[in-house]
Predict the 3D structure of the following.
Amino acid sequence: MIDLHNHSYYSDGVLSPSAVVRLAKESGCEVFALTDHDTTDGLAEAQQEADNQQIQLIHGVEVSAMWSNMTVHIVGLNIDKDNPTLQAGLKQHQDFRKLRAEKMARGLGGAGVIGALEKAKALAKTDMLTRTHFAQMLVQEGVCKDMKSVFRRFLTGKKPGGVGGKWAEFDEVIAWIKAAGGVAVLAHPLRYRMTNTKVQRMLSHLSNAGLDGVEVVTAHSTDEEITLMSKWADEVGLLHSCGSDYHGWHNQRVKIGALKDLPNADRVLWGEW
Ligand code: AMP
Ligand code: MN
Ligand code: MN
Ligand code: MN
C-alpha cells in the first residue's frame, strides 16, 4: 500500500508528523509521503518516526501554483528538502501566505468578524496559516455551520475573506521541484472547477512543461474516474500517482492507506524507487 499525499499540522492537517507516520504504519502503508502545503518543515520529525516504525518515507511538499490564472496544486516527491532553490521558492510562498492572512483578516473584519487573524493563529500549531485555519475559526465562532459553507460564503473570489492568489507560475514551481531532484505530480486533477476538456488541456500543457505525473487515484475516486484519468495521463505521457490527501479532520471521511489500486502497474510513478 502506497500513499503519496498527506498533511500534518505543519500546514493544515490536524496530527503531528510523528502521529501521521504512526497512523500510516498502523493502516498498513509501506510507502508514505508527507506533503504539507508550501513547507518541508515537518519532514525531519516524520523521518525520525519513519525510522522507528520501519516505514519508507518519501519526502514531499504540495506547492500552490498558478496555471492559466487559476490555483492548482503540484506535489513534489522524493525531493532533497534542503535544496536552496526549492527553499527559496517555498519562502516566497510562506511570505505571501503571511500577507494574504492579513488581507483575509481585514476583509473578514469588514464583514464583522473581530480579531480574525489572532483567532486563526490561535488554531495553528506553527506560523503557517492556510485558509483552512480561517475556515475552522469561522465555524468555531458560529459564523458558519460547516467548512463547505465557509469557503463558499467567505474565503473565495470576491467574498469578504477572498484574496486573489498570486502563487508562482506552474513552470517555476516545477523547476523548484526538479532543482531539488524531485518528481512533480499534479494533485487531485478532478477537484479544480474545470471542464473535462480543460483538464485535458492542462495535463498536456503541464506535461510539456516537465510535469512527471498526475494523481490517478485519490481518496474518493470512482472506478470511472480512475479509468478516465489513467487514459488521459497515458495520452500525454504522464506517470500515475496515488494519494489520499489526508488531513485528519474529524468530518473528513478520508483514511490513510485505503486507496483503490492503480490500474496499470507499468505506469506507476515509483517504478524506480
Ligand atoms: P490555502 O492553500 O491556504 O488556500 O488553503 C487551501 C486548503 O483549503 C486546501 O488544501 C484544502 O485543504 C482546503 N479547502 C479548499 N477548499 C475547501 C472546501 N470547499 N472545503 C473544505 N476545505 C477546503
Ligand atoms: Mn489542505
Ligand atoms: Mn491540494
Ligand atoms: Mn493536499
